[in-house]
Amino acid sequence: MIDLGISKIALIGAVALIVIGPEKLPRVARTVGTLLGKAQRYVNDVKAEVNRSMELDELRKMKDTVEGAARDVEGSIRTGAQDVQDKLSFSDNASGDGGGLDTASAFEPAPLYPSYRHPGKKWRLKQGAVPQWYKARAGVRSKALSGAARVARHRPRRFK
After folding, report:
1. Structural domain of residue 75, as residue ranges?
2. Domain count, the chain
3. How many CA atoms lie within 13 A of 144 on its CB side?
């Protein structure tokens, strides 16, 4: 790059002071500073864009390798399953059973994971250590009531 030392910057400043003049020099210096700042930001943006594109290319390569490995594993599992199915159908035919179960329908794969079942818990309700039956027997309040509901609950009943 350009090697600018203190002596070279002082020389450039002195020449600019003589050529431009003392009245216009601050405005020109401010303009040059803003232009240099814009140029620096543009260079930094270009560098960041190049880095992002390089990372994107690396991620694409990694994705391709992972997909290839997944395809290889899937192919090996399929060939293994086909071999097992061939062995089972060969042993079924060799036994002379004739009218047995169809191996394709008898060996359908079961789901690998259980279906989701909601736990049925009331997660908004605070659970305490005291059992609910004890609270009911002792008369402990287990539900929050609004002010109007509390007044209505404890208001004496009128007989008609």
Report:
1. 6-85
2. 1
3. 4
pTM for this entry: 0.38
What percent of the chain stands above pLDDT 90? 30
Q: Write phi, then psi, for 142 (nearest 5 degrees).
A: -110, -10
Band of residue 43 on the pLDDT scale cut at 50, 70, 90: very high
| Model pLDDT, residue 107 | 62
Q: Which residue has tokens 């400043």? A: 13
Q: Degrees (nearest 5) of the Cα angle 13, 16, 22?
A: 100
Sequence-ordered list of residues with C-beta below 8 angstroms from that of 87, at least 6 positions apart, any chain: none
Q: What is the rounded distance in angstroms from the CA atom of residue 39 to the CA atom of residue 45?
A: 10
Is pLDDT at 131 greater than 60 in this prediction? yes
Report if residue 26 sits inside a domain.
yes
Predicted pLDDT of residue 110: 66
The span from the CA of 149 to the CA of 23, in Å, is 82
- Measured CA to CA in angstroms, residue 72 lies from 9, 62, 69, 84 at distances of 64, 15, 5, 18
Query: What percent of the residues of the chain are helix, what percent strand, and what percent coil, each to the nearest 5?
Result: 65, 0, 35
Rg (C-alpha) for the chain, rounded Å, is 41
Q: Confirm whether 107 is domain-assigned.
A: no
